[in-house]
Amino acid sequence: MKTNILYIFFAIVSFITVSCSLVEPVDENLLGEERLNFDPAFAEGVLLNAYEDLVNQLSFNDAATDDAVNNFLSSYRRMAIGEWNAQNAFTSRWWQYEHVLYANKFISLIDEVVWKRDEETNELFKQRLYGEAVALRALRHFWILQEHGGKGQSGQLLGIPYITEFLEFDADFNTSRLGFEETVSRIAADFDEALEYLPLDYDGDLSKKPARYNAVNDEKYQFVFGADQDNRISGRTVKAFKTKLYLLAASPAFMDGQGNYYEEAANILAELLNDIGGIGGLDPEGHYNFYQFAIGTRNFPEVLWRGNASTFQTWVESQQFPPSLNGEGRLNPSQNLVEAFPMLDGQPFSISHPDYNPNNPFENRDPRLSRYILYNGNDLNGRVVNTGNDGGIDGIDQVAQRSTRSGHYLKKLLDQNVIISADGTITGSEKISVYVRYTDLFLMMAEVTNELGGPDQAIEGLSARNIIAAIRQRAGIGLNNSDAYLSSVTSQEAMRELIRNERRLELCFEGHRLYDLRRWGIFDQTVDVDGLQFNGSTYSKFSVEPRLYGSNANYGPIPQNEVVRFGAIEQNQGW
């Protein structure tokens, strides 16, 4: 870790020097780091670095799971076929410590900066920015824990090193991992402290003021905590990630229901979800239109926290469109995932179902299937794609590293209006990076209430059954608003499987399944990936790629160079 943190220290100094040289005469560069103490915009740049590279829905790590394969030799493909080890820690998040140090550096200088000339306004800015930095520090540690928490060589359930100060280059970096529960407690404590400083939302609503600001001038409060700060981390966001922390802790691979983590998560989730209207607040278009919107649109009721809208993310279409539309077709959904989508009446997919059509196995299916996966005969904005043997370059393995390997292409997350010309020019598209959305929280609530008491255990009006019913009805499942299959689910175990499948479908290709499988303790049981081939008259299933995960797969490795360099850092079992 020392080499990485030394690099980070010099990167911060370089950021200071380079930024200075862009806006000041050369001789002013001699100010160096001292400028942080009197230039508020310059100092806030350190905090903004703590906001960089937040985990979003565009990781496309599905190729490491049973949901997809890559058509090129990506790190996730290598991971899935047996090359995942501590030397090749493909999903490592150890680099997130860089952003922890940015947050800590900012906290160390915040009191030295004059943010505003008015004393009361200056104090409000300091407190808000402090809350942001503490929240980001907790969030980064959560993401590191999600990847690297696990059983150490001793068999003890371990967390990660928790860093709460900016470490200078000569500091002792040989820091041991905390116990898992202690790490959870430290992250939760930082989240709780941040909640003392951050508003629920950046809308200037005086009714949402944290108690510490009750005596503050209303106009000054609204100036500091108003809508101009939207997209910064808020109290609502902090609460959402705190529930994710508790759900991780309660899950089978970690505490397995011990402690009160399910209860804590349920109480916070009930507060967040009922604040938007409970079941009635489920966005009718949230399963689809949270990422597909007209340029200039800024209202995203499904999205709790997001980045700024950007016109520079058409790389998604370039990478994922099929080759006939001048894309690279990189992520190929699996037939395993296709078969996870139920029949239209809600019954699980089965070739013995009376509505199954062997000549078109995509008929009479969950409508999300046609919206999320570009299968043979499906289209992108009227442009039909043929992946059969007579499909030309869109057919299976027709063009190396461009054609599908599974018989399917990605459709979800793509702007279907984009046109890629043969010369590589591409039409404009606007996208947002999504950090957390409400459907995820509803599904989490279904999971925790079911684990607490089964399908009909309700907390403040929210139960697994009524949440899953609303999500499936929104998707278009069921005939005449009847979902006989859901009605037949009466046991906790059967509801657990249904909830897990709904998470798989609703959140597919958003980076969730890899970590869901691991926290459920079943990633090592991942099955091989199948595809579906059409020969012009019939469909046949075939094997595409193995999944070679050992019993150690539920806990990611700590990069081996860190373990070798620092003897206090204990590696997870099996790595």
TrEMBL record:
Domain RagB/SusD: 303-575
All residue ranges annotated as the SusD-like N-terminal domain in the record: 65-212
Compartments reported by the entry: Cell outer membrane
Pfam families: SusD-like_3, SusD_RagB
Alphabetical UniProt keywords: Cell outer membrane, Membrane, Signal
Alphabetical list of PROSITE patterns matching this protein: PROKAR_LIPOPROTEIN (PS51257)
Record-stated family: Belongs to the SusD family.
Name of this protein: RagB/SusD family nutrient uptake outer membrane protein
Organism from which the protein derives: Euzebyella saccharophila
